[in-house]
Amino acid sequence: MARMPGAQYRPVVNVHHDGVRERRGLVLHVQDDTGSPYGWFNTPSSQASSDFWVRRDGYVEQYCDTGVDYAWAQAAGNPFYASVETEGHPDTALTGAQLEAVAHIYAWGHSEFGWPLKVVDSTTQHGLTYHGVGGAAWGNHPGCPGTLRRAQRLGVIARAGEILGGADGTSVSLAHVVAAAQRDPVAAQGSTTHRAEVLVVERALRAEGLLAAEWVDGSFGSRTVIAYAALQRRYGYTGAAADGIPGRASLTRLGAAHGFAVTA
Ligand SMILES: [Zn+2]
Known about the structure:
With 264 residues, the protein is α/β, with parallel strands linked by helices. It has two domains: 8-164, Peptidoglycan recognition protein-like (Lysozyme-like), CATH 3.40.80.10; 171-263, Muramoyl-pentapeptide Carboxypeptidase, domain 1. The chain contains eight helices and ten strands. It has helices spanning 38-41, 96-113, 147-151, 153-164, 174-183, 195-207, 222-234, 248-258, and strands at 8-9, 15-16, 25-28, 52-54, 60-62, 70-71, 81-86, 127-130, 171-173, 261-263. Strands 1-5-4-7-3-8 form a six-stranded mixed sheet, with helices on one face. Helix 6 packs across helix 8 (248-258). The radius of gyration is 20 Å and the shape is elongated. The two termini are 35 Å apart. Bound molecules: zinc ion.
């Protein structure tokens, strides 16, 4: 049984037992309503349910045995991803308490099922995806959960990484990466300061198409600084804010897109 500690467990009738085929991650939804959907989900004729529901104050209900049974939230996506409904409407953002609660759900799923700390806009990749991306096969809800909540997935993943405290082994220290970016370019060629963490960042820059494979070497040398500056410009930074030395915001965003958490 996979029940999240801290969630109110309220099993409903609208679930498919023993049907989960893969545990790829979590799908973010918006309720487009307020109040617990428990009654609706526990009514056979509604043909609807989700694994979780998060109220605006951060209270969480869980409606099925996540990872074993699947809820009826995203049609063809149900056997592959768990689901979280969030109280409110598509034109409003998640509250801080909701974001925190969704991050706790995701951190739990990471520990329980290996969901990677990653935002994906996909119906096949592992990570935190969203309902609308599934199109007709996922029930045709293009506006779920809306652009605001969709964008907040980066914050959810960043916060999940903090909650896990880097226990998953894919976290990098901002201080270490900054130290490397300041020392490695002026040290001997190929000199490394925090090799393992720099490699994580370099692989992400490589995946972004900004760094040639030969420079993915664990040394935050001048090529890596140039690549990071290009990333900062891509993220909208200019001038001294795009100097190639990682800042918390840009590194957190890169990490959310490529599966690593950022610690102090
Ligand atoms: Zn939805």
